[in-house]
Design goal:
CATH topology of the largest domain: AhpD-like
Order of helices and strands: HHHHHHH
Shape: globular
Number of domains: 2
Radius of gyration: 17 Å
CATH class of the largest domain: Mainly Alpha
Number of strands: 0
Number of helices: 7
Strand content: under 5%
Length: 130
């Protein structure tokens, strides 16, 4: 499994298509260099790298890419609590408006995940077949 697949999960193909549509050369740099080389380096695990990415994206004003990294942090093992604490901690350094924007993005992501999980839950009464 590539670093991208571990971070992006089931969104990998969609994210790769969007990157290629923006620009194939830039997409290659993002996918191969940013993810496979830099994010895949030893020394920090992917959870630490994704939590750091969340902090840095908050500092940049929570661009649309923050949702990818909020989801990525969860995909590579960060708990909901760890992501929330990362956002709250960032408020000390970059300000409450930016942290609040990130927390809103995270809340929206959690709602969408919960909705997907409820839609994919098995239907029926859960009893044994009659």
């Amino acid at each position: 499994m590539t670093v991208r697949e571990r971070i992006w999960g089931e969104q990998t193909a969609a994210i790769e298509r969007a990157l290629v549509q923006a620009d194939p050369d830039l997409a290659r740099y993002v996918m191969e260099f940013a993810y496979e080389e830099v994010m895949g380096r030893p020394g920090l695990d992917l959870k630490a790298r994704e939590l750091q990415a969340v902090s840095l994206l908050i500092a940049l004003g929570s661009p649309p890419e923050i949702t990818t990294h909020l989801q990525g942090a969860l995909n590579v093992g960060a708990s909901e609590r760890e992501v929330r604490e990362t956002i709250i901690h960032a408020a000390l350094y970059v300000g409450f408006p930016r942290a609040l924007a990130a927390m809103k993005a995270f809340a929206q992501l959690l709602r969408a995940r919960a909705q997907r999980q409820s839609l994919s839950a098995p239907s029926g009464d859960g009893g044994s077949p009659g």
